[in-house]
Amino acid sequence: MRGLLGAGINRMNIYTVRQATEGLASFMDTLDEQTRNRGVAISFDSRYHSAEFAHEAARVLGAHKIKSYVFDDIRPTPELSLPFVISIPMPGL
After folding, report:
1. Is 73 left (phi over 0), alpha (psi -120 to 50) or beta?
2. DSSP SS3 for 44
3. pLDDT the model gives residue 28
């Protein structure tokens, strides 16, 4: 997710991150157990609040009992694609 930081539903903030992640979690709830158990890869970069947003997304997924794999430090966007390249299909945020 990217966008201008600020209050409101058309800006990047903790609430819009939670809402978008709830949407992903609701979709994943419709998937078969094997697919759901793969979890979600979450990366963040050097932008303001990126790490905070990544960890908040992981908390939302955790509330749905969905595993999340959060990178331990900032990464370039293409690096999030690595799980797909090595054939571990899972959603990425």
Report:
1. beta
2. coil
3. 93
Beta strands in the chain (DSSP E): 40-42, 68-70
Spell out the residues 6+ positions from residue 23 whose beta carbon is closer than 8 angstroms to its own. Answer: none
Give the tens place of pLDDT for each residue, 34-58: 989 989 989 898 889 999 999 999 9
Element (H, E) at 50: helix 50-63
Say what the pLDDT of residue 84 is. Answer: 57
CB atoms closer than 10 angstroms to residue 21: 25
Within 8 A by CB and 6+ apart from 4, the residues are 11, 12
φ/ψ of residue 57, rounded to 5:
-60, -40
